[in-house]
Amino acid sequence: MRADGELAARVEDVLLGWWQHLSEAVDTDNDGRIDMDDLLAMVDRLPTMRDAVVATADTVFDAVDENGDGRISRNEHQRLVDLWHGQGVATGDVFDRLDQDADGHLSRAEFAALWTQFWTSDDPAEPGNYVCGPVAGHSPR
């Protein structure tokens, strides 16, 4: 099983690399800084960048799948949520919302679909919006 530090480092590398790629694409005034307009432009572009989103999903999946069995268990998902929040988070029924086929794990394809929803969906009812834990303002059951 991977140490928390290794998981944190891999996820951080993926997300910071993705952030760098996205920030370069939306730095509209080329000043090397991201202002609120640039940030909103980036968020607006994410739905058109599905390949980039899915590529990050694969890397995050590999980092979270600690035992390398090709699926994410409830416990592995909990560690992702805790890492995302920087502390232990009560997730209630979040994993059950994500595991729509109720087989007790998330496959690579399931996780990629959920991850894509997380980054591109405006609909808080879509399960992918819970991939990194409870949605603010909605308490877990």
From TrEMBL:
Every copy of the EF-hand domain together lies at 24-49, 52-87, 93-121
Q: Where are the transmembrane segments?
A: none
Which SMART domains does the record associate with it? Answer: EFh
The protein's GO terms of the molecular function aspect are: calcium ion binding
UniProt-listed CDD domains: EFh
PROSITE patterns with a match to the protein in the record: EF_HAND_1 (PS00018), EF_HAND_2 (PS50222)
The protein's name is Calcium-binding protein
The species this protein belongs to is Streptomyces gancidicus BKS 13-15
What are the leading ranks of the lineage? Bacteria, Bacillati, Actinomycetota, Actinomycetes, Kitasatosporales
